[in-house]
Amino acid sequence: SDIALRDPGVDGGRGPIESVGLMAAEYVAAIRQVQPTGPYLIGGWSFGGIVAYEMACQLDEQSEQVGTLALLDTGIVYSFAVMRTLFPKDDVPLFQMSAIDPATQLDYFRRYASGAQLIPPGAGDRLAKRILDIFLANAEATYNYRPRPYRGKADLLLASDEFVRVRVRRDP
Description:
Number of helices: 5
Low-confidence stretches: none
Mean pLDDT: 80
Helix content: 40-55%
Structural class: mainly alpha
């Protein structure tokens, strides 16, 4: 069975998850409801790849087999470089956004996020605010995440067109 996962905060049912480990645990539980045993084929792009990596670690700890772990343009340094590219440092620094008033924060996010298509066209302020909250929670989760060794194999796929230039981008 194929299953796609996304942050539960997108639908507004609750706030975003601010921990890679907790997000991975929730996603592992969700996929095991659909498919109780492996092998599992797991993949993710950018921050999703970081969560996919942690999911593979957790499944391995549960003695479950991960057949494929595909990481698409994934890496902690790379993820922060993407965020820096989206939100220039000469304006409001990403980690200081929570200190500015909500209306300015949302306007700033809309201005820069539109180029990266983070917010769907025509989205109202409520949806844009939920996406902003998830974006900031993911940034915080990435900053606090400490990857551990994974005993399985991972496939790192990198786009030939670089969105950002990072010295360590090609270092698996």
